[in-house]
Design goal:
There is one protein chain. The chain is of the alpha/beta class and 286 residues long. It has 2 domains: 132 residues, HUPs (Rossmann fold); 130 residues, Rossmann fold, CATH 3.40.50.1220. The chain has 8 helices and 13 strands. A 5-stranded parallel sheet has the order 10-9-11-12-13. The protein has a 3-stranded parallel sheet with strand order 2-7-3, with helices on one face. It starts with a helix and ends with a helix. It binds flavin-adenine dinucleotide. Flavin-adenine dinucleotide binds next to helix 6, helix 7, strand 12 and helix 8. The site of flavin-adenine dinucleotide has 27 residues, from helix 6, helix 7, strand 12 and helix 8.
Length: 286
């Protein structure tokens, strides 16, 4: 497992990989991981410390920042190095209506970044790198014992992270009884996974794992269908990296039409079956 991570990091550009190899670190433990990362930052003095804005990263980053008395910008959606070499940390503010550039006053600059917002470098499998071991001596004793594991997200939602086509569903489809019609379209698009707005997640029409946007996933399909959804910024921030977006909405003044490449004004219940039939016909003719 460690070897696979090392290979991935090196292939994607790491020149040095720091390895914390200790059996007590196999399962995430807040205290032990905090100790290892705090020591690593103190010892190696990096210019920037970045963690993913995942459940783990959101737990770990503030603790490490507090131990080191560093500022922390949480949940960035983009990063840039400015002309003065400072890290510009972009973070949505005021419910996503503005994106604020944040500069750190402390060093190293420290931030968590939302998964899916930055494109990974293309891997170069032939690369080599130094491997340095981190100090894992005298780690704090585990205060939490895992007694069982259950759940996990639906595999169809996980597909959103790497899919080529995604079908986005908003409250405008009317109710969960209409999902089968959307699923027919998704099937005609080679089984594209469904993305949903927060309104749809709040109504419980599909599990929240499918939610895309500010407080959901960020996805990068080649083609995104936005069906019966308004195009609130909090949703569309999650599809910023989609190549082509198609919006279907019955209101010609809907904000979605300012954010998509192709807009279809009409009742989804009429447009979607026509689209599905055309795709199925095209597939049969292939
Ligand atoms: C802090 C914060 C975080 C948020 N995070 C997220 C997030 O991560 N993801 C997210 O999605 N939202 C998020 N939201 C909510 C967001 O602001 C919107 O409320 C939500 O995205 C709207 O969902 P919707 O477009 O499905 O519903 P609505 O706003 O109700 O829009 C429904 C749309 O369907 C259209 N429609 C109705 N009938 C039809 C029909 N027959 N045919 C075609 N179109 C039709 C309507 O014209 C309308 O445009 C967040 C909000 C806040 C404040």
């Amino acid at each position: 497992m460690l070897e696979r991570w090392r290979e991935t990091l090196v292939a994607h550009g790491a020149d040095t990989v720091y390895l914390a190899d200790d059996p007590s670190l196999t399962d995430y433990d807040t205290d032990a991981y905090t100790a290892v990362l705090t020591r690593a930052v103190e010892h190696h003095r990096p210019g920037v410390v970045l963690l993913g804005s995942t459940a783990l990263g959101r737990d770990l980053a503030p603790r490490v920042a507090a131990r080191l008395e560093l500022g922390l910008t949480g949940d960035c959606i983009d990063l840039m190095i400015d002309d003065e070499g400072r890290l510009v940390q972009y973070k949505p503010a005021f419910g996503g209506n503005v994106v604020a550039p944040i500069f750190s006053r402390t060093s190293p600059e420290m931030a968590t970044v939302r998964p899916g917002m930055l494109s990974a470098r293309s891997p170069s499998p032939g690369r080599t790198a130094r491997v340095e071991r981190l100090d894992t001596a005298d780690l704090p004793e585990r205060r939490v014992r895992v007694v069982s594991r259950s759940g996990g997200e639906a595999p169809s939602a996980a597909e959103l992270d790497s899919c080529e086509i995604a079908v986005g569903v908003g409250k405008g489809i009317g109710g969960p009884e209409n999902l089968p019609e959307i699923e027919k379209l998704a099937a005609a698009l080679d089984g594209a996974p469904l993305a949903i707005t927060r309104s749809v997640a709040d109504l419980g029409w599909l599990p929240r794992h499918h939610q895309v946007g500010l407080t959901g996933r960020s996805i990068a399909p080649k083609l995104y269908f936005a069906i019966g959804l308004r195009g609130a910024l909090e949703h569309t921030v999650g599809i910023r990296r989609a190549d082509i977006a198609v919006g279907i909405n019955n209101r010609d003044r809907s904000p979605i039409f300012k954010q998509v490449d192709v807009g279809i004004v009409g009742d989804w219940a009429e447009v979607v079956p026509l689209l599905t039939a055309a795709l199925e016909e095209a597939r049969a003719a292939r």
